[in-house]
Amino acid sequence: MPSSLPSESLPTAADVADAAGRLTGVAVRTPLLESDSLNRLVGGRVLVKAEVLQRTGSFKIRGAYNHICRLDAATRGRGIVSHSSGNHAQGVAAAAAMIGVNATIVMPADAPTIKVDSTRAYGAEIVFYDRYREVRDEVARRLAETLGAHLVPPYEDPWIIAGQGTVGLELAEQAAAAGARLDAVVVPCGGGGLIAGCALALATHAPGVPVHGVEPDAFDDTRRSLAAGERQSNPAGARSICDALLVPTPGALTFAINRRLLAGIVTIRDDDARHAMRAAARTLKLVIEPGGAAALAAVLAGRFDVRGKTVAVVASGGNVDPTYLAQVLAAPDASSGTNRS
Amino acid sequence: MPSSLPSESLPTAADVADAAGRLTGVAVRTPLLESDSLNRLVGGRVLVKAEVLQRTGSFKIRGAYNHICRLDAATRGRGIVSHSSGNHAQGVAAAAAMIGVNATIVMPADAPTIKVDSTRAYGAEIVFYDRYREVRDEVARRLAETLGAHLVPPYEDPWIIAGQGTVGLELAEQAAAAGARLDAVVVPCGGGGLIAGCALALATHAPGVPVHGVEPDAFDDTRRSLAAGERQSNPAGARSICDALLVPTPGALTFAINRRLLAGIVTIRDDDARHAMRAAARTLKLVIEPGGAAALAAVLAGRFDVRGKTVAVVASGGNVDPTYLAQVLAAPDASSGTNRS
Asked: Which of A98, A124, A152 represents a domain boundary (last residue)?
């Protein structure tokens, strides 16, 4: 795989600012929240960018809307196809509905029911595939060809990355408005679109503040790719409860940005994500899904040390089935990292 | 009991505006949230004033801080006492800590653990009483006399009411900024301080918009008081899961305002509150405690009809034990009102 791309194909901070203008009145300017209890728990100041409060329950509508806006009328008229473990699906479905474009979404058969139902409720058609036996990119590409439709990628696209980057732009503005001097920003990392966009925005709007990614232990493709200097894949059959972060390999575009701008990657266990979901409900009063809680999990588990520091974490999504959330909330906090609560 | 008070003892919209100035940078300007899924569910537009995201997890710090700020230095120096089922306790404890005043809080022995622990974490002393055998006002008054301390009432005070009213002031400003024309505002009602303050603010900043209260079926003292034209008490031994809303009788001050400004009161069952907690977790990604969910519950259960309307509801607090929340989330939605989800 190519480990670098011509820089003219990469989005810039100006593309993020452009996306921010397009998203005004469309995406929610989600609050940057803080909890005295959470701060006491970790011995530092944690600012939480609450994308769980975003329309569709995750940041994904930002990139999806920005991408679809940039298509010409003829392309839009033929409809769009996308593939997603769920949050991008809802983002694309909602954006397509707002713009008036037909959408068909390829989803894994084991996607959380709440994500499937919500995607359908926005008016999209759903086509299922087997996450462990089929390659979703191929399923989606074949479907797009059959339908003559445009494929909206989940992260491997400049307009998508620029849209997701508005999370970082807002975060920088909100931290500055609150008088907070950030020591670091910590962001969940799956395909890498969110963190790449955030890193672009922060490099301009919060220069010098290091941006760290968080991956599940079993899906540490970006961590290994950064170490190797080229894109590495995850082993077939790897499992994690962080369904929003499970991709086969980093994107070429996203990795080209991330290798240049990220300060590093830390990893978390599934138990760390569950612990963070419990802490979020108790201290922040937020429902966060496992993958969306990855950055908070890294902080709470001590994988990323925030003692004495001011650190912003992105809580990227909250689309978790209530029955699963109930199981997580009912479980004891027995084995999660160094910080207990 | 007196059914009216001299109007000069009542707070005004100007007192609310004054409190808003004092609370800038102290209380969170909580977001007014909206969920496409929730709107679909009820067939109307519901704007949720998310006071669960307030410092201490409820609106109570607004009134407590405003009240303590107004005390003279000598009074502050002798410390304060307060009594509360939990949220006011945390609000007073946090406000006292910020201002540098010693606080002792009288709490019912069966208050949720999360509320007791959080109050203690703000540095307050806790004194317990039996909710069903002792009158908390008397316990607190005796304690204040013994300590020579100042008693901060939970709702029966102009500064408290004015502080809580900043919820309504912000709500009016945020709805206007979002271009939403409100058909009604629905607010949980316990002692009546929050709704009285909101009604004062809204009468000035959203004139003509009716304000409705919501009480638990078994604690409908304000509903009956409005009907009777004078304050009525709840029967001894009444029970509800809405611990934040359980008071023996409306306040004299709060009732004097509410009888003049409220459009009415609807009531909810405990099952309606549980249903609303589930819907809030799924659609809004918010943790709301039973009493804090009362207004949303009234909307979801069809007790307050929002079909085709734009209605703001106040989600007043989120301090619920995670294990209880887990029980509620795991339970089926079998018997709650006319709107299912």
From this structure: A152
CB contact under 8 A, A31 and B52: no
Distance of alpha carbon A268 from alpha carbon A339, whole angstroms? 14
Give this prediction's pTM. 0.94
Q: Give the CATH number, domain containing residue B171.
A: 3.40.50.1100
B54 lies in the same domain as B137:
no
DSSP B39-77: HHHHTSEEEEEEGGGSGGGBTHHHHHHHHHHTS-HHHHH
Residue B268 token pair: 């909810």
Does residue A60 carry a catalytic annotation?
yes
Residue type for position B246: L
Residue A63, number of CB atoms within 10 A of its CB:
33
Query: Do residue A282 and residue B114 have CB atoms under 8 angstroms apart?
Result: yes
The string of pLDDT tens digits covering residues B54-98 is: 999 999 999 999 999 999 999 999 999 998 868 999 999 999 999
In DSSP notation, A146-193 reads HHTPEEE-SSSSHHHHHHHHHHHHHHHHHHHHTT---SEEEEE-SSSH
**β-strands B310-315, B45-50: how paired?**
parallel
Report yes or no: A272 and A265 within 8 Å, Cβ to Cβ. no
Give the phi and the psi of residue A45 in degrees, each rounded to 5. Answer: -110, 120
Three-state secondary structure call for residue B197 = helix
- Closest residue, chain A, to B29 (C-alpha): A31
Asked if residue B335 belongs to a domain, the reply is no
Taking residue A99's Cβ as centre, other Cβ atoms within 10 Å add up to 16
Find residues 184-243 of chain B whose CB sits inside 8 Å of chain A. none
Beta strands (DSSP E) in chain B are: 32-33, 45-50, 80-83, 103-108, 125-129, 150-152, 184-188, 211-216, 264-268, 310-315
Q: Which residues on A lie below 8 Å from B284 (Cβ)? A: 53
Q: Do both A22 and A124 map to the same domain?
A: no
Of B123, B152, B181, the one marking the end of a domain is B152
ipTM exceeding the 0.90 mark: yes
Same domain, B42 and B181: yes
Report the DSSP beta bridge partners of residue B268. B216
A59-89: per-residue pLDDT in tens? Answer: 999 999 999 999 999 999 999 999 886 899 9
User: Which residue among B118, B287, B328 places its CB closest to the CB of A286?
Assistant: B287
Q: What is the pLDDT of residue B162?
A: 98
Whole domain around residue B112: which residue ranges? 60-152
Report the domain count for chain A.
2
Contact B326, B309 (CB under 8 A): no
With b for 16 or more beta-carbon neighbours within 10 A and e for fewer, the B130-168 pattern comes to ebeeeebeebbeebbeebebbbbbbbbbbbbbbbbbbbb
Structural domain contains residue B263: yes
User: What is d(CA A26, CA A337) in angstroms, rounded to the nearest whole number?
Assistant: 38
SS3 B333: coil
Tokens of A186: 């910590």
Tens digits of per-residue pLDDT, B215-274?
999 999 999 999 999 999 999 889 999 999 999 999 999 999 999 999 999 999 999 999
Residue B279 distance to chain A (closest CA, Å)? 9
The reply to whether A250 touches chain B by the CB within 8 Å rule is no
Tell whether A225 and A82 lie within a shared domain: no
